[in-house]
Amino acid sequence: MNRKKIYEEVEDVLASFCQDCFLRKHFRKEKGRTYAHQFCISECTVGEKLKRLGNELSDRT
């Protein structure tokens, strides 16, 4: 997969799943932005997919 396709997939995932995510909004309101961000990265399956795509991008440089 080339870099442009990876970026497009990341944008698609963010727009489809993360933009209106109830858990993200809830955790931001109740526990703060840092906690919500950490939850998304470490525990959310969508965050894991984004992390994998990010690793693919880093491997290409």
From TrEMBL:
GO molecular function terms attached to this record: zinc ion binding
Pfam families for the chain: zf-C2HCIx2C
InterPro entries: DUF2602
UniProt keyword terms in alphabetical order: Metal-binding, Zinc, Zinc-finger
Identification of the protein by name: Zinc-finger domain-containing protein
Organism of this sequence: Peribacillus simplex
